[in-house]
Write a structure and sequence with these properties.
The chain is flat. With about 180 residues, it is an alpha/beta fold. The longest helix is centred in the middle third of the chain and has 25 residues. About 30% of the residues are buried. Helices cover about 35% and strands about 25% of the residues.
Length: about 180
């Protein structure tokens, strides 16, 4: 049976949710798609990590996703590399879909808040240390796409990551 604190917290969450019903969702086009990818290391009971992503094709989210990763990772950097690899399927599908519509995208920007993950995705195994040398080669698929200029991975400070709410609990104004 839940205690009184549980019901107080639940009431507070419901108040936050009710306060968002007046917010407008809009979609406006732009030249380059942007994707925010975040992960949360070993948060599930079986110690699996979690991936969250938001893709914008201008103003407004055109794709969002929040999912448990399908494998265990050994560190938060590896969890972030796996998250970017998971997001690449959506990036490629969107690029191919837009190309079929006659809209050719030069580069898709993937925003990430771990600088070590950015180095790993840009340089592949050359940036590996003893913490990450065990990474499977399949997770360096993004490195090839970066070299071909299909995508780029850019740093985004944690407080600007749009996708934080898919991986971490947010409160107050950050939630709104």
């Amino acid at each position: 049976m839940p205690d009184a604190d549980y019901y107080k917290k639940l009431t507070k969450v419901m108040q936050y949710i009710r306060g968002t019903k007046e917010l407008l969702l809009t979609i406006e086009p732009s030249e380059d798609p942007k994707l925010w990818v975040d992960s949360l290391y070993a948060v599930h009971p079986n110690m699996m990590s979690h991936t969250g992503m938001v893709m914008n094709l201008g103003k407004g989210a055109t794709y969002t996703g929040s999912t448990k990763q399908k494998l265990n990772t050994k560190c938060s950097t590896e969890a972030s590399v796996v998250a970017i690899d998971n997001a690449m399927a959506q990036v490629l599908w969107t690029r191919n879909f837009l190309a079929a519509q006659g809209e050719h995208i030069t580069t898709t920007t993937i925003y990430q808040d771990y600088k070590s993950t950015i180095l790993l995705t840009e340089n592949g195994k050359q940036s590996s240390s003893w913490h990450t040398r065990h990474l499977n080669v399949q997770y360096f698929f993004v490195t090839n796409k970066i070299k071909k200029s299909a995508v780029k991975v850019a740093f985004c400070p944690k407080h600007d990551m749009l996708v934080e709410f898919f991986t971490k609990p947010l409160q107050g104004t950050l939630f709104k």
